[in-house]
Every structure is written in structure tokens, then in C-alpha cells.
């Protein structure tokens, strides 16, 4: 038993962090939000080269997965850098398609290599306007949709563009495999944890340099204690996430989603408060993470649904 | 990343479970904060020790099993899952013993540890004073040099277990020079109040010691005031160098807030009992999320501790990260018990249930072992790198 990332897992996280830092994600996010996908797709290709999407694709289809721990490691970094696009949905689609051989053969190598983006409508299809493959989950069945209606609905997170899939298409599966949904929840939880960690880092940096009353505001106990609480929430969500990646039980994954999303959202509230008015502007890059923390909270399992799943993992006493 | 126990760990778990199945009292012992309960818990310590289960992580020479940290965590999981009694020797085992392992002499270890392991000698903590709480370094109780040892003078308070314990360990000012809290005009460089302290062990049942029990919120004498009037302490009971007391005591505090004060097993068991209670009450929806949070929190605390233990086994020190731990478990413990009392409805206010006993106990958590405000300051300064500010 050694419940820590291996040297390889740490190196993988560091290399993604370096790649995304160099890419300067905020400008990519802003152009993606405006419906310009070129920079986002270029970044997507680089993430694919680094092996991110192959983690969700089985070896039979030119992937290396499923590797949930590595997937969680990667998605923490994607969240930390607010990477736009249907990241979780591509992971979910890879799991859903893996059970349908004729679709899997054609599509999964493309998802692994980053040449295709997938989304899953349930009911909204995240970034349906950019996706090459659109699946839908309706009444517990999985469909391959012919595409999305033109236009998108805005999300609270401007980088999330919510499309509506066209009705009909081909039935892929009469039921959603539980492990596919678990993988989507795990990836969302990891992404949320990364969002929370970034919000904490940015806010700590801000309160060290913002001076009021002649001193950095970070020297005030009211400020320091809110940040300490954010740190506690995030550091206790992290082991729940990686524990879930190891067991992949529905209860553990739901616990990870609830813990990570609560921690990230609480950190977002603290980040907004401690930045003051500048944090409330769309112009400040903090907004890219603030709004994502809210959107991820309800994506692929609301807090209530996740808590119910945690409890259903416990056998009632006989 | 790996959570798979080794075959040796599995065998250890099975052995612990079998022993506990055979020995845990069928009827819960009376509260350990009463005279009768204290005595019953002392006997239970002896029963544990007879089969080497009281201090599994200690070296075998002192009554342990040299189990290592992971197997200690496993033992604790089994211990609380079995519904075994609270540990009346907790202060000695988790606070004094680690200090003796680090700073004590071999003579001290072989004299002090075996009777601690068996419950023959039960230890109280003597740190706080009426005017020195969170600002512990402002303490004024003195240790005055005398032939062959020291004379203790002063007053200690909030001394857990002292109402019935045998001995105590604590911090005293050994340097005769007063330590000013603020810069003195007559001295260019004010002396730090952290200097000139001695960390030592003393008897609670000797001439010069007056113990006045203090009733906690429910009236049970869980702690006490100590009045010390020229209490003689031989040199052999000084831990480390006189003058170095602060550093030595803070190493204890690091251990206390770290991995060993509240084991995850305790909360895993409490959360499981809460879920049972919730089921027994027909799964009411209004507390469902809070019950789920108790399960999530217990899992978080367990896995956080496994990660900490793994880092420790890698040779890293845990240091200020133990402050994260302390705030988390102390607030978690209260929330869990509040949920249970709410679930119990009209029975929630009854003071003679395990849940209410646990609730009253939990309320002290954010205050003792360094208040949560002090812990948040430590997190802010040492983990987040924020500037020091006014407390």
C-alpha cells in the first residue's frame, strides 16, 4: 500500500502543466467562448499527443485505457488551466462507443488521436457546435445523433456552449453502462478539483499583493482563515478523488464528485469575495475558473444525486 | 498509487479482529470521565496490554508490536468497528510517548513506557494556564532549580484526565529571568517568550499538588486545575535539555495534530453507526445529505491519513500539514454528532446515550490541541505563504 502518485504519474501531471502553461489557455478559452474553435482544436491535438484521450480508449482501439488514475491526474491539470471543450464528454463517449464494435473501430482511434471531438447530449450537448461525434442519452438509452440544431444556449460558464441534439439517429445501446457514467463523474470531479486548486493559487497570489490600509489584505485574519478553509476542503477532496479512481465503485466516484465540486465551488465563492469588485468582472481571467466551478457542480451528477449514490453504496442493516 | 493491503497487513487485520471479537465488553463501560468509568477503562487498558494490543506501533521492548503506521491504522479501524471502549491512556500514548521516543533517554523510555502501555500509570497533560491559552508561550508557572531536581510553582488548567490520572507532563519556565511579552525599554533585544522553558514529567499524587476537577459542559470532571506548590521533580524526569522545552513540546503538538490523535477508524465507525441510525429511522430525506457527508468525510479522512502515512514512510515529515487534519476532524466530529441528535428527534436531548456523550466530547475538539483559529493561522502562513498579521 502506497497511496501517493507514482513518479510517472507526477511527471505526467508536470508535463501537462508545462504544456498548458506555455499554451496560455485564457486566450484559447476566450476565443472558444466566442465560437472560434481553431485555437481550442490545436490545443486539443497537443493534449491528444500527450496521451490524454488515449487514457479513456481501450488498447484494442489504439488507446491505452481505461486508466482511471491517470485520467484523474490529467483532468486535474485540465481543470487547473480551464481548458475548454467537451473533455469529459469525449471520455464518456469513448466508454459508450467501446461496447459497440462497428462504431468503436471507426471512431475510437480518432478520439484517441484527437482528430475527433465527441459530445454527449443529456439533454444539452456541451460544445455540440464543435463536436464531430454527437451521442445522446435519452430515457436511459444511448443514441448516435445525426448532429445538433444550429445555435447554442449560453452557459453560466461562457466557455461551455450548450447545443441541442437533433432527434432520432441510431440506437447504440439500450442502457447506459454504469462504468461509463462513473468515468464521466470521475473526470468531472478531477476537473473541478483542478479548477478549485487554480482558484486558490490565484487568490493567494492576489491577497499577497493587494494593499489596503497600508498592508497586504492577506495579512488580515478574516481573509487568511477563508483561504485556510478552502485549502482544507481541497486537500481532503484530493484523496477521495484518487481513492475513487482506484476502486471505481459507484459510491466512491459519487463521493469524489460531491467532495471535489463542493470544495471547488466553496473556493470559487472565496476567490470572488477576496478579489473584490475586480473578481466580479468578465474581463478578469479569474472569471474563467469562477464560472466553471459553478457549471461543473451540476454536470454529470448534481450534489444531491451524488450523495444519494454514496448512500446507496451502503447496505441497509438486515 | 495503490490501496491494496499486503498479505501481512491482511493477516494482522484478521488477528486484531479475532481478538477484539473475543474481548470487547458486550456492555459498554461507564463514561471514562467518571471515577467508576475511569477505573473500568484502566482495567480495559490492562486487558489490551496483556495481549500486546494497547500500543501496536511501539517497539516490542516497551509492549508494542512494532507494527508500523499502516498496521496501526488498520488496528484502529478494527478497534472502533468492534465498538471497543475509548482510550483512557490516549494522552500518554499519543502525546508523551512520541516525545520520549524523540527526546527521551533510554532510561526514561524503559521506566515510563511499559506502565503507560498497561494502564498502570495514566497521564494528564499540563500545558495551559489561566492566562496562557492560545498564547501558550506566555506561561508563567515556574520550575526552580533545587538539589537533584526542580521545584514546580504555579497553576495549570484544562488538564485533561487530571481528575483521576496518576502523572502529568507539561511546560514550565525554568529560566529565572522574566520573559516580557512586549518589547522592554531597558533591553535592546526583547527575549522571546519561547526561550527558557523546560518540559518535564511530574507526579499528581505527591505533596504540593492540589487537583481541582472541573466539570465539562455536562458536568463530568473531564479535566482539572492543578495548583503546584513547590512540587519536587527529580532531574531524571526532565525531557531533553532545560531551556529547549518549547521546541520539544511543539514536536509533540505536531504529532498530536498529525496522524495519531484521532485515527480514521474512529470516524469510519461513527459514520457507519450514523447510517444505521438513519436506516433505523426510515431514511428521512431532510438529513440525507448530511448522512452522506458523514460517509464522504470519513472516507476523506481515512484516505488523507493513508496518503500522510505513505509520505511519512517515504521519509517526509508532515509538519504544518497536520493543521489541515486537526481542523477537519474536529469540525467533522461535531457535524456527525449533530446529525445523529437531529435524527433522534425527541430522544436527541437525552444525556445518557452514546450519541450525546460523543456530542459533548466532540464540542471540545475545535478548542483543544491548539484552537482551530490557531491552526488556520498556521495553514495560512506555513502552507499558503500568506504574510503574518495580527491574530
Describe the secondary structure blueprint for this structure.
The complex is a heterodimer of chains A (318) and B (391).
Chain A: H1 7-23, H2 25-33, H3 38-49, H4 68-80, H5 87-97, H6 101-113, E1 118-121, E2 125-126, E3 133-138, E4 141-145, E5 153-154, E6 161-163, E7 170-173, H7 178-209, E8 211-212, E9 215-216, H8 221-247, H9 250-275, H10 286-298, H11 303-312
Parallel strand pairs in A: 1-3
Antiparallel strand pairs in A: 2-6, 3-4, 4-7, 5-6, 8-9
Chain B: H1 7-23, H2 35-50, H3 68-81, H4 90-103, H5 106-118, E1 123-126, E2 142-146, E3 149-160, E4 167-173, E5 197-203, E6 209-214, E7 223-234, E8 238-243, H6 245-260, H7 264-280, H8 288-313, H9 322-344, H10 354-363, H11 372-383
Parallel strand pairs in B: 1-4
Antiparallel strand pairs in B: 2-3, 3-7, 4-5, 5-8, 6-7
Helix pairs in contact in B: 1-3, 3-7, 4-5, 4-6, 6-9, 7-8, 7-9, 8-9, 9-10, 9-11
Which residues of chain B form runs of ≥5 with pLDDT under 50? Answer: none
Spell out the helices and strands of chain B N to C: HHHHHEEEEEEEEHHHHHH
Helix-and-strand structural type of chain A: alpha+beta
Give the C-level CATH assignment of the largest domain in chain A: Mainly Alpha
Q: Note the total helix count of chain A.
A: 11
Largest sheet of chain A: 4 strands, mixed
Structural class of chain B, by secondary structure, is alpha+beta
In CATH, the homologous superfamily of the largest domain in chain B goes by the name: Butyryl-CoA Dehydrogenase, subunit A, domain 2
- Largest beta-sheet details of chain B: 4 strands, mixed
List the secondary-structure elements of chain A in sequence, H or E: HHHHHHEEEEEEEHEEHHHH
In round numbers, the mean pLDDT of chain B is: 92
Order of neighbouring strands in the sheet with most strands of chain B: 1-4-5-8
Per DSSP E runs of 2 or more residues, the count of β-strands of chain A stands at 9
**Span between N and C termini of chain B?**
39 Å
The chain-level mean pLDDT of chain A equals 96
Strand content of chain B: 15-25%
| Quantity of strands of chain B, as a count | 8
What is the domain tally of chain B? 3
Shape of chain A: globular
Distance between the termini of chain A: 32 Å
Largest protein interface, residues of each chain: A-B, 50 and 53 residues
Amino acid at each position: 500500500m502506497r497511496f501517493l502518485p507514482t513518479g510517472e504519474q507526477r511527471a505526467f501531471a508536470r508535463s501537462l502543466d508545462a504544456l498548458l502553461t506555455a499554451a496560455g489557455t485564457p486566450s484559447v478559452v476566450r476565443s472558444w467562448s466566442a465560437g472560434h474553435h481553431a485555437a481550442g482544436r490545436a490545443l486539443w491535438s497537443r493534449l491528444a499527443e500527450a496521451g490524454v484521450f488515449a487514457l479513456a480508449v481501450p488498447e484494442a482501439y489504439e488507446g491505452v485505457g481505461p486508466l482511471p488514475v491517470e485520467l484523474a491526474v490529467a483532468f486535474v491539470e485540465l481543470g487547473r488551466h480551464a481548458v475548454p471543450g467537451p473533455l469529459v464528454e469525449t471520455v464518456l463517449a469513448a466508454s459508450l462507443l467501446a461496447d459497440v464494435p462497428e462504431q468503436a473501430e471507426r471512431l475510437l482511434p480518432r478520439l484517441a488521436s484527437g482528430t475527433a471531438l465527441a459530445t454527449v447530449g443529456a439533454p444539452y450537448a456541451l460544445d455540440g457546435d464543435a463536436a464531430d461525434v454527437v451521442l445522446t442519452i435519452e430515457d436511459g438509452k444511448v443514441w448516435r445523433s445525426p448532429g445538433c440544431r444550429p445555435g447554442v444556449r449560453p452557459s453560466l460558464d461562457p466557455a461551455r456552449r450548450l447545443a441541442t441534439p437533433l432527434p432520432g439517429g441510431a440506437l447504440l445501446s439500450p442502457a447506459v453502462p454504469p462504468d461509463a457514467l462513473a468515468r464521466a463523474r470521475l473526470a468531472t470531479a478531477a476537473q473541478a478539483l483542478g479548477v478549485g486548486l487554480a482558484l486558490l493559487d490565484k487568490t493567494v497570489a492576489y491577497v499577497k499583493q493587494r494593499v489596503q490600509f497600508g498592508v497586504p489584505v492577506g495579512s488580515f485574519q478574516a481573509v487568511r482563515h477563508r483561504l485556510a478553509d478552502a485549502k482544507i476542503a481541497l486537500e481532503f477532496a484530493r484523496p477521495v478523488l484518487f481513492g475513487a479512481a482506484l476502486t471505481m465503485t459507484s459510491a466512491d466516484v459519487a463521493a469524489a464528485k460531491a467532495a471535489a465540486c463542493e470544495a471547488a465551488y466553496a473556493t470559487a465563492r472565496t476567490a470572488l469575495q477576496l478579489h473584490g469588485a475586480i473578481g466580479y468582472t468578465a474581463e478578469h481571467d479569474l472569471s474563467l475558473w469562477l464560472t466553471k466551478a459553478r457549471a461543473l457542480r451540476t454536470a454529470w451528477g448534481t450534489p444531491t444525486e451524488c450523495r444519494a449514490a454514496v448512500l446507496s453504496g451502503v447496505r441497509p442493516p438486515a | 498509487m495503490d490501496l491494496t493491503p499486503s498479505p501481512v497487513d491482511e493477516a494482522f487485520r484478521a488477528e486484531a479482529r479475532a481478538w477484539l471479537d473475543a474481548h470487547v465488553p458486550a456492555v459498554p463501560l461507564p463514561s471514562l470521565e467518571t471515577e467508576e468509568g475511569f477505573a473500568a477503562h484502566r482495567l480495559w487498558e490492562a486487558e489490551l496490554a496483556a495481549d500486546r494490543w494497547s500500543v501496536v506501533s511501539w517497539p516490542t521492548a516497551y509492549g508494542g508490536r512494532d507494527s508500523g503506521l499502516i498496521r496501526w491504522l488498520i488496528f484502529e479501524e478494527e478497534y472502533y468497528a468492534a465498538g471497543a471502549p475509548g482510550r483512557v491512556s490516549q494522552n500518554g500514548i499519543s502525546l508523551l510517548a512520541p516525545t520520549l521516543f524523540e527526546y527521551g533517554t533510554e532510561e526514561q523510555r524503559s521506566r515510563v513506557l511499559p506502565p503507560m502501555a498497561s494502564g498502570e500509570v495514566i497521564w494528564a497533560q499540563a500545558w495551559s494556564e489561566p492566562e496562557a491559552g492560545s498564547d501558550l508561550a506566555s506561561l508563567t508557572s515556574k520550575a526552580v532549580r533545587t538539589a537533584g531536581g526542580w521545584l514546580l510553582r504555579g497553576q495549570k488548567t484544562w488538564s485533561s484526565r487530571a481528575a483521576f490520572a496518576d502523572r502529568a507532563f507539561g511546560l514550565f519556565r525554568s529560566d529565572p529571568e522574566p520573559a516580557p511579552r512586549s518589547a522592554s525599554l531597558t533591553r535592546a533585544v526583547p527575549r522571546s517568550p519561547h526561550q527558557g522553558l523546560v518540559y518535564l514529567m511530574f507526579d499528581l499524587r505527591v505533596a504540593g499538588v492540589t487537583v481541582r476537577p472541573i466539570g465539562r459542559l455536562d458536568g463530568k470532571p473531564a479535566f482539572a486545575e492543578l495548583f503546584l506548590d513547590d512540587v519536587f521533580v527529580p532531574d531524571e524526569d526532565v525531557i531533553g535539555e532545560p531551556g529547549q522545552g518549547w521546541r520539544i513540546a511543539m514536536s509533540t503538538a505536531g504529532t498530536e495534530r498529525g496522524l495519531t490523535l484521532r485515527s480514521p477508524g474512529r470516524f469510519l465507525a461513527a459514520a457507519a453507526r450514523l447510517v444505521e441510525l438513519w436506516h433505523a429511522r426510515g431514511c428521512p430525506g431532510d438529513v440525507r445529505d448530511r448522512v452522506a457527508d458523514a460517509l464522504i468525510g470519513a472516507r476523506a479522512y481515512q484516505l488523507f491519513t493513508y496518503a500522510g502515512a505513505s509520505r511519512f514512510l517515504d521519509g517526509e515529515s508532515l509538519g504544518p500539514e497536520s493543521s489541515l487534519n486537526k481542523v477537519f476532524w474536529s469540525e467533522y466530529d461535531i457535524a456527525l454528532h449533530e446529525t445523529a441528535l437531529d435524527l433522534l428527534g425527541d430522544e436527541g436531548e437525552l444525556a445518557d446515550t452514546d450519541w450525546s456523550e460523543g456530542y459533548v466530547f466532540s464540542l471540545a475538539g475545535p478548542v483543544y490541541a491548539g484552537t482551530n483559529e490557531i491552526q488556520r493561522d498556521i495553514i495560512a502562513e506555513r502552507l499558503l505563504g500568506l504574510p503574518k498579521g495580527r491574530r
